[in-house]
Design goal:
This protein has 239 residues and is α/β, with parallel strands linked by helices. The protein contains seven helices and nine strands. The strands form three sheets. Strands 3, 4, 5, 8 and 9 form a five-stranded antiparallel sheet that branches. Strand 1, helix 2 and strand 2 form a beta-alpha-beta unit. The radius of gyration is 21 Å and the shape is globular. It starts with a helix and ends with a helix. It comes from Thalassotalea algicola. This is Amino acid ABC transporter substrate-binding protein. Belongs to the bacterial solute-binding protein 3 family.
Length: 239
Amino acid sequence: MKWQLLCLLMFFNFNVSGTEPILKFDLSGSNNWSPYYFDDKDRPGILGELVPEVLALADIKGQHITLPAARLVAAIEKGDIDFDLISPAWFANQEFAPKFVLSEPLVPIKEYVVQLSANNIPITKEQELHNKPIGTVRGYYYHNDDVFIRQDFSSEKELIKALASKRIDYAIIGDLPAKYWSSRLDVKVKLTLLHSDGFLHIRLRNEHALLLNRLNSAIYQLHETGKVRAVINKYLELL
């Protein structure tokens, strides 16, 4: 009887240890990272549509949790979430911590220096950022934020509002969020200096690295079928 019980416990423990984890993730960015993410099940945004599709095709279970942008860095570092979406172009020398692995590219992403259309002093060279106060999103990565003075706000929406009220003269914002929020808030802005140009990748903690091939296969399939481009085009219509 004892031997049978021991075998049963060993079998149970094997199955538990062999069970794949449910990957926790956060797509919300600043919670106003539109059109990449909306808190709307009928219109979840570019990433809100594509990431669940990637997980489904890869046969990986996921759980979306929403955190403030300022907590995201600590959350991924501590393992409170298992992956996020980042662009290597956001990091100095496109280098990030070795405790992570990156998927294949999912969607393109660009950031620009943004200013009011009425501001006739454009920033056209990176050197012109030096020692200037620049609007940024709290918790976001910027590859050269050691050369300018960060003025942190809670989201891209708040950056556009700060430009409109002239609390700041310049901000670094993704091109799509800048266009989305300037349109919604009826603030005329212009995008001047290209600050970063790259792709969003799934950044996965190393302990889940064995799942990377499945994620990459799913991403490849979504590109090959035209799904990625179709979803991007769908949300570009909102701009």
